[in-house]
Amino acid sequence: MRAAVLGVHGEPPSPAEHPDPVPGEGRSIVRVTAAPVVPLDLLCASGTSYFGPPPVPYVPGVQGVGVIEHSAVLAAGTRVFFSTSAGMAPGDGSFAERCAVPDADVVALDTPVPDSDVAALGLSSVAAWMTLTWRADLQPGEQVLVLGGGGAVGQVAIGAAKVLGAAKVTAVCRSEDARQRALAAGADEVVALGPDVDDATTSLAVATGGSVDVVIDAIFGVAATAASRLLANGGRLVNLGGASGDEATFSSAVLRSRSAGVLGYTNNSLTPDQRRDALTAVLHHAADGHLRVAHETVALPEVAEAWQRQSTGRTSGRLVLRMERYGQ
Q: Model-level pTM?
């Protein structure tokens, strides 16, 4: 089969012939139609992640969309979303014409949302939905602040907050392109923050009216410090990323006086049922046009260029590989 194969840690994968996956107990064979290129793919392939350097050569790709070819739990032809542990454990991922996937990590799809849109939403949308509903327990009428509103998680968090009844959604974005993506997702206000935490706090206070009930934070650093100062009584800041650094400073007086909470989140803590239910909910609202992630599709022969663009941030949204049936 054709696949994007990584041969050297830290370098982009290249299109190549690769052995077909072998059916095995507890594993489904999926013919892949679309697979997003996400930061976790690059981190794992770098060989510097806390998972350790993956054995090479291997096929990256921690999630994808496709059709069942062989499975003990789903009928052949069933359209599915799936996740893999490629780069985190030995084995190949979704950047290939076929992929072997643990049965528990396959979710049957019953949605009109196109494959590339499902792939773009993927596990980022699961994270956005679960931070709002499970960790933050967002209530109708509350005010939400999304840090990193132009990213995939941020775009879904903005739209999901609206769907869930938030009174106002404010987003923080660094670039004009990100600002436009956040506005398209439904943000009421978008603000850019500088490196000074006091100035950042003032900017957020003006944009939000002085307080927020829920902060969805994919960047941490100065933005999280500033946002924590605006938490309302009972406010919750949920962190799920550190794009702007691994440290933020929180005031004990602020947190205690407002009974506010700082919470962590990772998709790795979800059960398969939670992942399935969250994705199903997201796709329901995506089908209605309320949730989407800006993306562009690229063909498998362009994977090295897409990989480089993802690594340097030269994208207009999420990059999604479209798997074509080569040689047919």
A: 0.94
Nearest alpha-carbon partner for 308 in 58, 75, 10: 10
pLDDT tens sequence across 275-301: 999 999 999 999 999 999 999 999 999
Q: What is the pLDDT of residues 35-58, one digit of tens each?
A: 999 999 999 999 999 899 999 999
Confidence of residue 325 (pLDDT cuts 50, 70, 90): low
CA distances to 77, 191, 321 from 32, rounded to whole Å, are 12, 38, 10
298 φ, ψ to 5°?
-135, 150
Tokens of 10: 């830290």
